[in-house]
Design brief:
Structural class: alpha+beta
């Protein structure tokens, strides 16, 4: 959101409630219980043109669950951040969120409306300048609906704001409703109180007028096709927020059109976007950490990918100290879908043909020799090591594949070994834990790459000789038995299509992240409070895709 509109909330809140500041109103508020609207109640005053909406709960019990996590240092850092945020937002007043706003503000819905084009009057064009381009930047257009759960506290807050310096109020009437224009530091914002229980705010007056039209009976976000079903939300414990996107393709189109730097979406991309009808997501807190669940409703006629659940056995082929893993099933099917879709994208098709030509020059068929045999479960893992060629980076990688076409896989590995020999790389065999492993060796540095068979149907490729030892020697504990992996992925839904897993509790993980991404002391403090990250996806049918993400947090030390 532009900075000019980022601070409109507080003065507008007060202005909206000030309009009822009389003794009669006081008596009414004192005797009225007020309430916190649910998502459906809030959505009934949001115009049907809204592209998406986010519903945020102010339930203190749900948010308090977060206090059970984090190191003392991280909790102090978060507390300081909230304090600084409070000071920044209320820097021009003596308002406190805890004392003045929290007692009366119910749950909040933030809706994104189609962007408004920049008005000609807003353009500052010097005389003699060339013609103005027609693709003008459009401004973000939001609408906020706040449930008033304690009207007396709201009135007290409004009266307090009324005495603040630099706040100017001006009323206007629309459809019998009082719209309050609040100007602070030369920036106007707008608000209205509907049905004595909903405070509606926006940086644009037109958005408020549309909300009033909706309140008076025009089509609402709640009645919009696709919205009514997703407003039920996603089932997460201690829900903090829910996000609703009733028409995914329309949202992307509208937001892209509002960005002058974005290219116009080609018809092929629009077709791909239309595979997703609607999306609903929820964020909650449970005993494991912060959990996100998202459900996408798909068009089965446009969805070309055939989902297949993953057995999960491949995890057992990785050692317990694996700190990152991506697993799944059926790379060959995904490749076939990608090749089919590339026919509609000239640039993608050209890139594929170029890759095919380069590999063909070394007698390798990209479709058959590389992806054709990858028809089973797979896993890509990162494993710590400071030996040999891996000493400088601190870790290596392993790729493990289950296949029903061992003959083609072996032929491909033979071709790769032959190519390595032409590059003057020493290719030699070594026995590791009773398994015959082929290594590409570099003098004074050890093995650059290794490959071998773990069983009749499972082949691995390892980057670095020490990684080949870790994967081949089954005397070591496997990843699926580790406490860290169980803590991060054990509560994710099963069966599933595979995992993304990142263990943040390993002593080397945070330093590795810090070596690739510039981090300060505060960032490292937060990272040290995270146990790990895991997510998975399932697709019960061709009409539904579900994603689940867990940010596993370390419990607070007692």
């Amino acid at each position: 959101m532009p900075e000019s509109k980022s601070k409109f909330l507080i003065p507008a809140v007060g202005a909206a409630v000030v309009v009822v500041g009389s003794i009669a109103a006081y008596m009414y508020f004192k005797g009225s219980p007020g309430g916190s609207l649910d998502a459906l109640g809030s959505a009934k005053v949001v115009p049907s043109t809204a592209l998406m909406a986010t519903y945020i709960t102010t339930d203190s019990e749900a948010w308090a669950k977060l206090q059970q996590f984090g190191t003392p240092e991280a909790q102090k850092l978060v507390a300081k951040g909230l304090e600084d945020f409070n000071k920044q937002i209320f820097s021009d007043s003596n308002v406190s969120y805890e004392k003045d706003i929290k007692p009366w503000a119910g749950s909040v819905m933030i809706a994104v409306l189609p962007p408004n084009p920049v008005k000609p009057a807003q353009l500052k064009v010097p005389s003699g300048a060339p013609n103005i381009p027609t693709n003008l930047q459009q401004e973000s257009n939001i609408l906020i609906v706040v449930g008033i759960k304690d009207k007396l506290s709201a009135l007290n807050f409004a009266n307090k704001l009324k005495s603040q310096k630099g706040v100017k109020l001006q009323e206007s009437d629309y459809q019998g409703q009082k719209i309050v224009e609040t100007t602070q530091n030369g920036k106007p914002t707008y608000s209205v109180v509907l049905n004595d229980s909903q405070l509606v705010l926006a940086p644009e007056k037109q958005a408020i007028e549309k909300a009033i039209d909706t309140f008076k009976g025009q089509s609402s976000f709640a009645s919009k096709e696709g919205a009514s079903s997703i407003l039920k939300g996603v089932n997460v414990k201690n829900s903090l927020a829910q996000v609703y996107v009733p028409d995914y393709a329309e949202m992307i189109q509208q937001l892209t059109a509002g960005n002058p730097q974005a290219k116009q979406l080609p018809p092929q991309t629009l077709t791909q976007l239309k595979q997703i009808k609607s999306v609903v997501a929820g964020v909650g807190v449970d005993d494991a950490g912060v959990r996100v669940k998202a459900i996408a409703n798909l068009d089965p006629q446009l969805n070309k990918f055939q989902y297949q659940s993953s057995p999960g056995n491949i995890v057992g082929q990785f050692p317990a100290d694996t700190f990152a893993l991506i697993s799944g099933n059926g790379i060959s099917r995904g490749w076939e879908v990608l090749v089919e879709q590339s026919k509609d994208y000239p640039e993608m098709k050209q890139a594929l043909e170029q890759a095919r030509g380069q590999l063909k020059s070394v007698n390798i068929d990209l479709d058959k020799d590389i992806f054709g045999w990858m028809n089973g479960e797979f896993g890509f893992g990162a494993i710590p090591s400071n030996q040999g060629i891996l000493a400088s980076v601190g870790f290596g990688g392993a790729l493990v594949f289950d296949t029903s076409d061992r003959k083609t896989a072996e032929a491909t590995l033979t071709k790769l070994d032959t190519f390595a020999k032409t590059q003057r790389i020493n290719v030699a065999n070594r026995n590791i834990g009773g398994k015959n492993v082929t290594e590409w060796q570099i003098p004074q540095q050890g093995a650059l790459l290794a490959h071998g068979w773990l069983d009749q149907d499972t082949v691995f490729l390892a980057l670095g000789g020490p990684i080949a030892d870790a994967v081949s020697d089954r005397k070591n504990p496997s990843l699926d038995t580790s406490d860290a992996f169980k803590a991060v992925t054990g509560s994710l839904q099963k069966p599933n299509g595979g995992y993304f897993y990142l263990d943040m509790d390993k002593t080397k993980t945070v330093p590795l992240i810090n070596s690739f991404v510039s981090s300060n002391a505060d960032t490292i403090t937060i990272l040290n409070s995270i146990r790990g990250l895991g997510f998975t996806a399932i697709s019960p049918d061709k009409s539904t895709s579900e994603l689940e993400v867990l940010l596993a947090l370390k419990p607070t030390a007692k």
